[in-house]
Automatic annotation (TrEMBL):
PANTHER family: SODIUM/HYDROGEN EXCHANGER, SODIUM_HYDROGEN EXCHANGER 7. The chain crosses the membrane at residues 6-24, 55-72, 84-106, 112-131, 183-204, 237-253, 274-298, 310-335, 356-381, 393-415. It is found in: Cell membrane. It comes from Bifidobacterium samirii. Na(+)/H(+) antiporter that extrudes sodium in exchange for external protons. GO terms for cellular component: plasma membrane. It is a multi-pass membrane protein. GO terms for molecular function: potassium:proton antiporter activity; sodium:proton antiporter activity. One of its GO terms (biological process) is regulation of intracellular pH. This is Sodium:proton antiporter.
Amino acid sequence: MAVFELILCIIAAVVLSSFISRFIPKVSTPLVQIALGAIASQLPFFPNVDLDPELFMVLFIAPLLYLEAHEIDKSELLRSMKLSLSLAIGLAIATMIAVGFTLHAIWPTIPLAAALALGAALGPTDAVAVSSLGKEAALTRRQMGVLKGESLFNDASGIVGFQFAIAAAITGEFKVGEAAGEFVVSFIGGALFGLAIGLVANWLFETIRSLGWETTTTRILMELFLPFLLYLSAEDLAHVSGILAVVSSGLFVRFDRTGIGPNVARTNIVSNSVWGVLSFTLNGAVFILLGMLLPGAMGTSWDDPGVSNLMLILVILAVSAIVIAMRFVWVSTMLRLARDVNTGRRRRMTGERWRSAAVMTFGGAKGTITLSLMFTIPYALSNGRWFPMRDELIFVASGVIIVTLLLANFLLPLIAPNRGGDASREMNEVTIEVLRRTIEELTGRVTDENRRAVLMVIDSYTKRITRLKQRVGELDPQGYAQLQIDALGWEKDYVKRRLADTRSRTDITAANRDLEIEACEHLLDQIMNSLRHIDTDRRSGRAAWQIKGRMRALQRRTMTLVRRAGSKIRRTTPLLSDDQIFAHARMVQLDAFDYVIERLYEEMRRDTYNTEHCTALLLDYRRAEGALRARPNMSGSARTIGMAEEVKRESYAIELGVIQDMVAAGDITRAQGKALRRNVYVMSVDADSSL
C-alpha cells in the first residue's frame, strides 16, 4: 500500500509541476520538479522513498532512452557520431581520471579508487535533462544531435567505469587490462544484442500486420513491452550493457508505421498519445525522485560534526569546475580537429564556434543516473570495515548535479538566446505546422456518422492554413493579434447593445423577444469565453474580471432556463426549438460582422491600427460573412452544425494538445506556445462562422 501511495503522490507532483511551470517560464520544468520533490520529502504524509538503482534503470531509464533513440534525428546523429562517441567514451574516461586524482589530492581522506568512482558517476549526462532543459535557448540541430547522441551512449561507459572503480575500492586491487576488456565487451556486445533484437522485432511486427492479426491494443502493448524486455535480457542473459542494447534497438526498430489505411492511422495516433503521456510522466517522476532523494543524501554529511561544511562546499565547487572545464576543453578540441564535410579541412575557432562549444558544455547537465550510481556504493569493504567517506561522496555528487542543472537552466538562454522570438515568418510557419498536425489527427477520427461534420472542420483548418501562407512575411504579428482581440470586443459591444435594446422593447411579441434574447446571449457567451482566454495583457483585476465574466455567463444561462420553464408552465409562448435559436444566432452574428466591417473601414482612416492589419482582418471577416450567407436552409441544419461544433471543440482540444506536445519536445519555446494557445481562442469565434 505504501508503494501505491508513493506512486500516486509522485504522479500528483508531476501534474502540479506542469501547472506551476506555466507561471514561471524562465525556470525549466525539471528544476520545478526537483524543488517539488524536495518539498514533498519533508511533508509528514508523503511516503519515504528508497531508491533501488537496478529497478530505477529498468523502470525509468530504459523506456526513456528507448523513446529518445527512436525519435532522434538519425541523419543528424550520423553526422555528429564521432563527436558524440568521443564525449560518451573519451570525455567520460578523462573526467573520471581528472576528478579522481584531483579529489584525492584535495581531500586525502577519500581513497583514490572511491574518488575515481565519483568521477565515473559524473561522466554520464542525463538524457532527460538534455531533452528538457534549455527550452528557451536556441540550440542548433547539430548541437542537440551531439548532446542527445552523447546522452544515449555515455551511460554504459560511466556505469562500467564506476563498477570497476568500486570493485577496486572494495578489494584494494584494480586490473586495468581486465577492466578495459570487459568495457569493450559490454559496450560492443550491448550494441550488437540490441541490433539483433531490433531485427527480430521488425520482422515480427511486419509479419503480424501482414497476417491481419494486429490490433491497436496489441501493437501498443508490444511497443511498451519491448524496452523492458531488451534491458533485462541484455543484463541477465547476455551479460552486456542493457543501456546500449536499448539504445541501439531504439535506433533500429521502426514499428512499421509507414503503412496506409485508417487502422494504421488510428494505431499511430494512439501510439503517439500513449508514448507522450508515458514520456512526460516518467520524465517528471525522475526529477521528482531526484528532489526527494537530495535532502536525505546531503543531510547526513551536512549534519555530521566531524565534517567541515565549508570543505564540502569547496569540494563541490572544485569538482564542478573540473567537470565543466574538462568538458569545455574537450569539446573545443574536437571542434578544432573536426574537418569540414565539404572542404575536408580543419576550421579555425571563430566566435560562433567558441559559443557552440560553450553551449555543448553547459548542455551536459548531470542528473538522476549519477545519483542512482552513487547510492549503489556499498556500506562495507571486503574486510568488513565501513566504506570510507560514503556519505560525503554522495553529498558531493548531489551538489554537482544541482550546480550543472542550474547552469544549464540559466546560462544556456544567455549563451544561445532565441533570435527574433515570435518573428512573423517563424510564428506563421509554426502555426501552420500545428494546424497540419491537427488535421492529421482529425483525419484519423472520421467515421461514417461524423464524416460530413469532420470534413467541415477540416475545411475550416485548411482555409486557415491558406490564409497564413498568404500572410507569411507580415510585420508585427502582435499588432495583428491585438486588432483581432479588439474586433472581438467590438462584436461583444454590438451584441450587448442589441440585447439591452431587445429587453427594453415593447413593440414585439414575447416569442420574438425570447428568440432574440436567447440568440444574443448564446453569441455573447461564445465571444466572452474567447476573450477570457486570450486577453492576457490585463495588469490588474484579471482574476476578478474572469470570475465576474463566468458569473455573468452563469446568470444568463440560469435566467434562460427560468424563462423557458416559466413559459412552459404558463403556456404563454411556444417553446423555442434549437433550429430556431441556431438560425437566429447566426443572423445576429452576420449583423455583428457587418458592424465590425464598418468599424474596420473607419479605423483605416485613422492611425490607431496598421492599415495592412485592418485590410487582412477585413478579408477574414468578409470570408466569414460570405460563408454564413451562402449556407442554404440555415434553419434546418442544426443537427449537422451541432455535430460539427462538437467536432470543432474536439479539434480545439487536439490543437492545444499538439501545442503542448511541441513545447514539451522543445520544438517551440514557451513564449511561442503561449501565443499559439491564445491564437486558438482568437480563431474559435472565426471558425464558428466558417463551418
